[in-house]
Amino acid sequence: MISIAVNWIFAPNNTVTGGLTGIGIILFKLTGIPIYITNLLLNIPLFLVGVWKLGGSHFGLKTLYGTLSLSLFFKLTSPLLEHPLTHEALLASIYGGLLLGLGLGIVFRGRATTGGTDLVARLLQHYIGKQPGFLLLFIDGSIILTAAIVFGVERVLYALISLFITSKTIDFVQEGISRAKVAYIITSKVEEVREGLLYDIDRGVTKLTATGGYTGEERPLLMCVVYQSEVSRLKDLIRTIDPNAFVIVSDAHEVLGEGFKPA
């Protein structure tokens, strides 16, 4: 998925991604060097230096496998460069971001990595002590700035749209569709609401201890996880028992356990 997104959508439209793949796209357009060669030439030395400086425990076989297999698939999908999916920059940003996010999300869900700038960030952290998140932001920002010089500012604006979509798609793959909701309930009729949730809606309830920020008094707080289709029943139940109850309902992206997905 990652290689198809790059060769079929991003590279033909001069749209960069973050990381070393972005460097590969820039060098491909400037020099004609295939992206799979750039990926290997940049990643393998980084991997070896990482093992040497930080130890093999930081860079497992999954990292090496991800790096080599990504380069292989860049090679296998390189004919797609001649037949791009679209020449419309906005469509390329949207659908390229979706496909890239799906691929990266699957990789991250398997607790693996394809190498790239996260290796650079770890090495720089070893030498200069900055946080890896800041270093990744700096590295990817530098790559995008270089792309602005090579391809123009407009292409970078499209690339930022793609990066946003990629990020959201990665979250979606790792966390799943938000079909469940978690409700936090503060009420003066704790037992009545608890029994209603247990026996009318047939959902488990956890009783927590909360302290009022204004009064300083301790009082119970009920937590209940329900499916999205059950939210209306939950609110109707609470409204009937205690119209003055304070209720917070928020997304629960992944719920594991009895009544939901197995842990």
End-to-end separation:
28 Å
Task: Strand order, main sheet: write it out.
Answer: 2-3-1-4
Question: Uncertain spans, ≥5 residues at pLDDT below 50?
Answer: none
Run of helices and strands: HHHHHHHHEHEEHE
Helix share, percent: 55-70%
Mean pLDDT score: 83
Q: Tally the helices.
A: 10
Strand percentage lies at: 5-15%
Give the overall form: elongated
Q: List how many beta strands DSSP finds.
A: 4
Largest sheet: 4 strands, antiparallel
Domain DUF2179: 203-257
Protein name: YitT family protein
Membrane topology: Multi-pass membrane protein
Pfam families: DUF2179, YitT_membrane
Describe the structure in brief.
With 263 residues, the protein is of the alpha+beta class. It contains ten helices and four strands, in the order H-H-H-H-H-H-H-H-E-H-E-E-H-E.
Give your account of this protein's structure:
- The chain contains ten helices and four strands.
- The model has no long low-confidence stretch (mean pLDDT 83).
- The relative contact order is 0.12.
- The chain has two domains: 2-175, no CATH class; 180-252, Alpha-Beta Plaits, CATH 3.30.70.
- Helix content is 59%, strand content 11%.
- It is α+β, with helices and mostly antiparallel strands.
- It has helices spanning 2-10, 19-31, 35-54, 61-76, 89-109, 117-128, 132-151, 153-175, 190-200, 231-241; strands at 180-186, 206-211, 218-227, 246-252.
- It has a four-stranded antiparallel β-sheet.
